[in-house]
Amino acid sequence: MATLLVFFVVAVAAFVIMGGLSFRSERREWNRGICPDCFRPWKCFDWDSQGGRMYKCGGGHYVDITAPWVDRSYSQGCGK
Ligand SMILES: [Zn+2]
Prior knowledge:
The protein is of the alpha+beta class. Helix content is 36%, strand content 16%. The chain has one domain (2-77). It has one helix at 2-30, and strands at residues 43-47, 53-56, 62-65. The longest helix has 29 residues, at 2-30. Zinc ion binds next to loops.
């Protein structure tokens, strides 16, 4: 029983750490609304069923934002 509990705790911790890392990379890609590769503003063009927002810049780059706080002030204009 104790082994199962330890396994559960480790699994949850791993999930949280992985999730935190992926959100952190979203934040870096999002770069406060500006494409980090060509410095053009991200424009929302799609909204997926999981609530993720798809953005593209004018230079052919794409970013998929799933963390709700990363693009908070921009996601309102995205077609829900
Ligand atoms: Zn770009």
